[in-house]
Structure formats: structure tokens, C-alpha cells
Specification:
This protein is mostly helical and about 100 residues long. Helix content is about 85%, strand content about 0%. Helix 2 (about 25-40) runs parallel beside helix 4 (about 70-85). The longest helix has 20 residues, at about 1-20. The protein starts with a helix and ends with a helix. About 30% of the residues are buried.
Length: about 100
């Protein structure tokens, strides 16, 4: 678990730097948020994972569209986060989307 805690710290640092230095590169920020969400999921910090994924998904849809692979991957990761919490009613529509 220490590895995931360290990963979250690094992702937070990277995200802060990306937002400061390249605020216009939203896709890079979304990729970082999505990766950070995965680390939070492994730490069973599901609310933080969901928050990161929601922000990443919003960016992916706005910047790349509904049909892009990054958008689909983010939806899948969100569904997995819900599944880990046994929130199957929330997970299923995301898998089917």
C-alpha cells in the first residue's frame, strides 16, 4: 500500500505542476487525474477516486468527445470503482455506455 500512497503524492505534485505551467493542456491533466484515481482505488479511497474520475471524464468528453478511447477508458475505470464498492446499479450503465 505504501507504493500507492507514494504514487498519489507524486500524481498530486505532477497535476499541480501541469495546471500551473500548462493550464491549457487539459488532456494531460485528465490523464494524470485518471491515474491518480487508480491509486486511490487501490487504497480503497473510493470517494477521492470518483472525484478524480469525474473531473477527468468531464475533460475527456469536452476535449476529445464521447467516442474517444480515453473517454471510454475513463468510463470503464469509473465503473470499476463503483463495482469495487458493490454499487452495481451505478457501474452497469457505465459499462454499457
Amino acid at each position: 500500500m505504501q507504493e500507492f500512497e507514494a504514487a498519489v503524492t507524486l500524481y498530486e505534485d505532477v497535476l499541480a505542476i501541469r495546471r500551473e505551467i500548462h493550464p491549457d493542456k487539459k488532456i494531460d491533466q485528465a490523464v494524470c487525474l485518471s491515474s491518480m484515481a487508480g491509486a486511490y482505488r487501490e487504497l480503497r479511497q473510493y470517494e477521492k477516486s470518483e472525484k478524480c474520475l469525474e473531473e477527468a471524464l468531464e475533460i475527456f468528453i469536452k476535449e476529445l468527445g464521447e467516442e474517444h478511447l480515453n473517454t471510454a477508458t475513463c468510463l470503464n475505470n469509473m465503473a470499476l470503482t463503483y463495482k469495487k464498492q458493490k454499487k452495481f446499479a451505478k457501474a452497469e450503465p457505465l459499462y454499457l455506455r
